[in-house]
Specification:
Blueprint: E1 9-12, H1 28-41, E2 45-49, H2 55-64, E3 73-79, H3 91-98, E4 103-109, H4 112-119, H5 123-139, E5 143-149, H6 151-157, H7 159-171, E6 176-181, H8 188-201, E7 206-210, H9 217-227, E8 231-234, H10 248-258, H11 266-269, H12 272-282, E9 300-301, H13 304-312, E10 330-331, H14 339-348, H15 358-373, H16 381-391, E11 400-409, E12 418-427, E13 430-438, H17 441-453, E14 464-472, E15 483-491, E16 494-502, H18 505-523
Parallel strand pairs: 1-2, 1-8, 2-3, 3-4, 4-5, 5-6, 6-7, 7-8, 9-10
Antiparallel strand pairs: 11-12, 12-13, 14-15, 15-16
Length: 540
């Protein structure tokens, strides 16, 4: 950690507040895996859940006892004692103690309206509930992080009482006082002013817990730090109820790279992208390509002028080097591309193109023409590389189509239709003529092509089609409209996209399918047999 940088304490609540988001659910095993990953990343506190509230959280706290964490401290969440009872009789507080943690994070009411209307108790009793709960947990040997729920709303309604609730927790022994924007409706300038005023009124360490209901969770967290907060709570990828919590994936690099605070070691920060995707995977969520800092598209460049500048000086269009957060630069090819885009993509593939070469001009012109027809190479880098190899004379086809026929039969209106593809291809000096069925014409065509080639190219058995998309390009064309087919394929951990366009969906699918097979075989290191007499179908 940089010696002179002021340290920010990171508190992750993905396993508790994050799971309150709609559609987010982790098993106890998932929660343990995430906790280990957060510890490795450098998070200081991991809020594991609310012990006693459900069996899954109870299992997590039981299992995490046997896991060796090297940096993070696991915390158990709960509320202050209930009104009218002593802490020793409060099941919630007893569950925190029984969970085996050494740190508790408890919340209490700081908005007088909530005390009288939601809790249905008196303002004085609420203060006693806060103080009694913190003292009880401290007496059990636990550090206490106090979350002042609805603090900003409470402060704006009754400043004096909101501060009294903080003092009740502080005087009882709380380690840090966390100001919560529970409804997510406070603006950054308000957060800054209120945190600054609280800091001047109470000489206690302050934290921030922001929600994202106005899209300001990250901004409010940064504003609070500017005002003096040194403890920041949030979740990975911003998961959480309603619009989510402050996203630590954005908060951490902003604090460390932009504002000069120390959060995690530089080598840990370089795993930020992997951390985001790891949690997305366990949450069964597709990663957001436009997620700041870590998304696949955030360091992607498309315009030719941009790419030309980035090739010379990356800082012209990148606010940070992508490798600082474990991301990577990507250059896209499209109708907006210039020669710089193509040169960059060629270099990625070990192909040298001179900026004045005829091949470069041919590729740029072909891309612009094909994209005008409806091709989309941003999602079809397999088709793009094949096009590039054709332009420089390095393309060798693996087979050539001699003919195909597709039959769709439905013998009974109550039965599903059956598709059959009959295909004839030339492979080297041989003609292969075969047929296969499928649950649709494209599936039958795929099956027939594989059947025709797999004996010659057995590596084809390792290549799998993972996604198939069709988009109508001119809706006013009705049933005769032009369509674009995008195919995603994978083999041994590598994936690639290919594209085909035609007014005939079978032809568009065939073009994308041929590119998929040929590019996959090329990736597998397979050499084509003797070049067929007739060139294989190619994009465009």
């Amino acid at each position: 950690m940089t010696q002179w940088a002021e340290r920010i304490e990171l508190f992750d609540t993905t396993l508790r507040d994050g799971t309150q988001g709609e559609g987010v659910s982790f098993s106890a095993e998932d929660k343990v895996l995430i906790a280990v990953r957060l510890d490795r990343f450098g998070i200081d506190y991991i809020e594991g859940g609310w012990p006693g509230s459900n069996p899954k959280d109870a299992e997590f706290f039981q299992r995490i006892r046997d896991v060796e964490l090297h940096h993070a401290r696991v915390t158990a969440f709960g509320s202050t004692r209930r009104a009218g009872i002593v802490p020793e009789d409060d099941a919630n507080l007893q569950a925190i103690v029984s969970s085996g943690v050494k740190v508790a994070s408890i919340f209490g009411k700081s908005w007088d309206f909530h005390v009288t209307h939601a809790l249905g108790t008196t303002l004085d009793e609420n203060l006693r509930m806060i103080g009694d709960s913190v003292r009880f947990l401290r007496a059990q040997g636990l550090d206490v992080i106090y979350d002042a729920e609805h603090f900003f709303d409470g402060y704006k309604r009754c400043r004096t009482y909101a501060l009294e609730t903080l003092m009740a927790a502080w005087e009882a022994g709380a380690k840090v006082l966390v100001l919560c924007d529970t409804n997510g409706g406070t603006l950054p300038d308000e957060v800054y002013e209120i945190v600054l005023a609280v800091r001047e009124s109470i000489g206690a360490p302050l934290g921030i817990h922001a929600h994202n209901d106005c899209g300001l969770g990250v901004a409010n967290s940064l504003a609070a730090v500017r005002a003096g907060a040194r403890h920041v709570q949030g979740t990975i990828n911003g998961y959480g109820e309603r619009c989510g919590n402050a996203d630590l994936i954005q908060v951490i690099p902003n604090l460390q790279l932009k504002m000069g605070y120390a959060c995690v070691e530089p080598e840990q920060l370089r795993t930020l992208t992997d951390l985001s995707r790891f949690v997305s995977e366990l949450a069964n969520r597709t990663p957001n390509d436009h997620h700041p800092f870590v998304g696949r598209s955030v360091f992607a460049h498309k315009g030719g002028v941009h790419v030309s500048a980035v090739l010379k000086y990356p800082e012209t269009y990148e606010h940070i080097p992508p490798e600082l957060v474990g991301n990577e630069r990507r250059v896209l090819v499209s109708e907006l591309s210039g020669g710089s885009n193509v040169i960059y993509k060629a270099r990625e593939r070990g192909i040298q193109l001179d900026k004045d070469s005829p091949a470069l001009k041919e590729v740029v012109a072909t891309i612009k023409n094909l994209e005008h027809q409806g091709y989309y190479f941003e999602a079809a880098e397999g088709s793009f590389e094949l096009l590039l190899k054709k332009a420089i004379g390095e393309y060798r086809p693996y087979f050539a189509l001699e003919g195909l026929r597709i039959i769709i039969e439905k013998d009974d209106m109550n039965d599903e239709p059956v598709a059959e593809a009959i295909i004839k291809v030339r492979v080297g000096d041989a003609i292969v003529h075969t047929a296969a069925e499928g649950n649709g014409p494209v599936n039958a065509l795929d099956n027939a092509l594989r059947k025709a080639l797999v004996d010659v190219y057995p590596e084809l058995a390792r290549i799998h089609l993972t996604d198939y998309k069709v988009r109508v390009l001119n809706e006013d064309g009705g049933t005769g409209a032009k369509v674009r087919v995008l195919i995603q394929s994978a083999c041994d951990g590598q994936s690639w996209g290919t594209v085909g366009v035609s007014p005939n969906i079978i032809e568009a699918s065939w073009i994308a399918l041929v590119d998929s097979v040929e590019y996959g075989l090329m990736l597998c290191g397979v050499e084509p047999l003797t070049t067929p007499v007739r060139a294989a179908a190619a994009s465009g």
